Structure formats: structure tokens, C-alpha cells
Amino acid sequence: MERPVRPDRIYFGRTEPMEHAQSPLVGTCRCGRTAIEVRLPPIMVSACHCRGCQRMSASAYSLTAMIPSEGFAVMTGEPVRGGARSPEISHYFCDDCKSWMYTELGMMPGIVNVRPTMFDNDAWTRPFIETMTAEKLAWATTPARYSYPGFPPLEDYERLLGEFADAWRG
Q1: CA angle at residue 49 from 125 to 164, to 5 degrees?
Q2: pLDDT of 88
Q3: Cα(170)–Cα(23) distance, integer angstroms
Q4: In the chain, what's the furthest Cα-to-Cα distance?
Q5: Mean of the pLDDT values across residues 108-132?
Q6: 140: number of Cβ within 10 Å
Q7: For 112, which of 44, 72, 89, 100 could close a Cys bridge (C-beta 3.0–4.6 Å)?
């Protein structure tokens, strides 16, 4: 099902589909039974160093491409909810191989946090910001432009989204 582009939303200053990867971008879990599709560019790419993300990703940090929900769809498979459970956080995994595919946050309606490593195209794997660095492993580094010991203050988001959009346009 194709989701329409909403003219009331701004994606990098335009309402057109993504330019840095072929549209649509299809990604799969490790076993290939669950596939997701993205038709709009990310509004931000980040790395989270919190202990929860370290444990769920079995890595030093998790990568997230924040996608407007109307540009995201599950194409095959039926992801299951798992990981940390709360009314505000819903993590979704492949029902078979248990790959962490995406997350929906109640405090950010209209955004899906997709694991960009699900896609063969690695254009979205470079984080622009890194969060929860107070919990990062001592040796872990990223090429992120901005680092935050927790999450960015709310007043920083508009600037960060604008700078990311400018960097995305190149």
C-alpha cells in the first residue's frame, strides 16, 4: 500500500521522495522473511549508546534512521513487539530470526525509527548525532557531528533537523 506524501510536512525543505537512495528502499531482516519499505528520506540519522540499545543490538550502539511514518511500510512478514516494553516504546522484530527492524515511540507520533542496516544501501548508516554518550563504551566512536550525554534538549531539535536537512542536500 502506497502512503501519500503529506503537503503539510517538510522533508528537507521539499515534499518529494528521497534522492540519496533509489526509491523505494527495501530492507530485510537477517533471514529475509520480514521486509520493510521506505519511500521518504530520513529526517535524522542517529546512534544511541544507551545500555538498552547496546543489549538489543548486541553492539556498542544502535543506529536509527528517523522516517516519517507515511513513508514506511512492512511489505512481508509480521513483525512482533519485543525488547523493552512500555506504552511509549514499541520495538518490532522479525518473528522468525528476531532481527530488530524498527521502533515506534509514543512521544514521537508520525515517526518510525528504522534500523538502517536492514537496507543493502548504506547511505543512511552515518549518524549525524549520537545520544546517551554518558553510557557509551569507552572505546566506541562514531563520525557523528553532535554528541549528547543524554538526548538533545527540545530546543535543539529544530536546529538539528535543519542542519541535517542541509547536510543531506549536500
Answers
A1: 45
A2: 86
A3: 18
A4: 44
A5: 92
A6: 14
A7: 72
Spatial CA neighbour of 30 closest among 97, 77, 81: 97
Please give the grid coordinates belonging to residue 149.
550525554
Q: Return the percent helix, strand and coil in the chain, to nearest 5.
A: 20, 30, 50
The percent of residues in the chain predicted with pLDDT above 70, rounded, is 86
Dihedral angle of Cα 23, 29, 31, 33, to the nearest 10 degrees: -70
Q: Residue 9 and residue 26: Cα distance in Å, rounded?
A: 23
Distance CA 27, CA 31 (A): 11
The three three-digit cell numbers of residue 63, written as one number: 543506529
CA-closest candidate to residue 94, choices 78, 112, 83, 115: 78
Buried b (16+ CB within 10 A) or exposed e, 66-88: bbbebbbbeeebebeeebeeeee
Q: Which residue has the higher pLDDT, 76 or 9?
A: 76
Residue whose C-alpha is closest to residue 131's, from 58, 44, 20: 44
pLDDT of res. 20:
55
